[in-house]
Amino acid sequence: MCGGSLEILPCSRVGHVFRKRHPYEFPEGNALTYIKNTRRAAEVWMDEYKQYYYAARPSAQGKAFGSIADRLALKRKLNCNSFRWYLENVYPELKIPEQEVVYSLLKQDGLCLESHDTDSLGLAECKTTPSIPASQKWTLIEPQIRQHDQCLAITAFTAGSKVRLEPCNAKESRQKWKPRGPALQHMISGLCLDSQPPSGPPVIAQCRPQVASQSWEPQLVT
Question: What is the pLDDT of residues 165-221, one digit of tens each?
Fold first, then answer.
């Protein structure tokens, strides 16, 4: 995260010999020392992902862990990357614990964004009975707009480019979106999701505040 590297050397061996007893003391006890040290690591390095540490170690909540001001200052001085960067660039294989999935409809003038297949998206009548079809359910987990394991992606970085679904990839810049008022803006191109023309697939276009074709209303599916 701070510019170093970890090397794997062929034929190297790593071993650990456990002593019968520790050659040092734990003034607060073994368990509390472990909680204190791991909580300090989580608070300094894990950013918003420290919630998973506390979920796994609920006993750490409220336990004193001392000042980490000097550690945070060192982190800033070294211009260290975020833990999100680490997950996306160093250890993308690490599976993040599943959060409760919340589905939404993406509505526009009474119609809903719907997928027909990966290359065919469009507005269609919102279907709520007998149940909402999977083709109209979306999960908005910034920076991705997901439908199961498929993500909304632009096909090019220029205005007028079509939008389609493709397998989600946290490193793929074409899949990164953010809310901009009622609009959904592609983070890299700066263009917004636009339903025009109504009979065709959505495209990305210059963001125009208050234009109906760029106004999307997420509605939670309950």
Answer: 999 988 899 999 988 888 899 999 999 999 986 667 899 999 997 889 999 988 877
> Both ends of the chain: CA-CA distance in Å?
40
Distance in angstroms (rounded) separating the CA atoms of residues 213 and 218: 14
Q: Taking Cα atoms as reference points, which of 36, 98, 43 lies closest to residue 72?
A: 43
Helices (H), 29-187: 30-45, 50-56, 69-77, 83-89
**Contact criterion met (CB below 8 Å) for 182 and 152:** no
In a domain, 97, yes or no: no
User: Can you tell me the mean pLDDT for 126-133?
Assistant: 83
Instruction: Give the range of the structural domain holding residue 168, as residue numbers without chain letter.
Output: 103-221
CB 153 within 8 A of CB 174: yes
Q: What is the pTM of this model?
A: 0.56
40 CB-contact burial (10 Å; exposed 0-12 / middle 13-18 / buried 19+): middle
Residue 56 tokens read as 């796994």
Statement to judge: residues 188 and 138 lie in one domain: yes
9 domain-assigned: no
How sure is the predictor about 16, in pLDDT bands with cuts at 50, 70 and 90?
confident
